[in-house]
Amino acid sequence: MNKLIIFCLIGAVGLSSCNRKAGAIFGKKKDKLEVVDPEFDYMSAKAKFSFDDGKKSVSATANFRIKKDSIIWISVSPGLGIEVARVLIDNDNIYVIDKLNKHYYEYTFQELSIEYDFDFNFQMIQSVILGNLVEPYQKQRVERMDNYFTYTASKGVYLYQNYIGASTMKLEKVQVFDEDTRNTISVNYSDFILVNSQIFPNEISAVIDYDANNKPNTEVEISFSRMAIEDGPIGFPFSVPNKYERK
């Protein structure tokens, strides 16, 4: 806890010293919005998280390991250090080992997108965890709205409304709207901290709102207690015991 407090204090000082004037966020040609994304090869983290989709409700501790743009590894423990699930996400698939029920699952992103009525992919999940822009800025019109710079990007049937903090220059909120299903994902970031001079959100909350078919919302909360940028490669141990049944 003391370490977290120190990180928060350093982050508060760092962010307050990095505040920029409105005009300073654009390049000389006034066509580039400078949003700060963390740079690293490998990182690890620990967080409390909760998940509720109206059918299942889960609260647990999660350990994360990330190889940027390649692998996301998650170990889930409800308490007392007993691992109940392990997740491996690569650019094509999501693999889950359920140690409680001795099952394992394998999903393609296409299958996951059909199940949740949204276009999921690796980069989207990584961006959500790190607080990066899901759809990069490409000279869209930027407007000042209260404490945010905001702009809208589109990709196929999806509209991305991005809210960038005027003081943090980090993505603080993004809303993704599906024009076909009218479903919306809203993600909020807060309590930014510095880790090896890189800025990360310490608190993340996400909601999938199913407007079209009256399904219960899916809600996810993540609160990090530790983050570290690793000096070199780290392991991503993942193997399915022979006796486990695929579901």
Overall CATH architecture: Clam
- In angstroms, what separates the terminal alpha carbons? 39 Å
Give the % helix.
10-25%
Beta-strand portion reads: 35-45%
Instruction: Indicate the low-confidence ranges by residue numbers.
Output: 1-29
Tell me the number of strands.
14
State Rg.
Answer: 19 Å
User: How can the largest sheet be summarized?
Assistant: 14 strands, mixed
Number of domains: 1
CATH class: Mainly Beta
Total helical segments: 3
Shape: globular
| CATH level 4 superfamily | Lipoprotein localisation LolA/LolB/LppX
Structural class: mainly beta
The CATH topology corresponds to outer membrane lipoprotein receptor (LolB), chain A
Order of helices and strands: HEEEEEEHHEEEEEEEE
Please tell me the overall pLDDT. Answer: 80
Main-sheet strand order equals 7-8-9-10-11-12-13-1-2-3-4-5-6-14
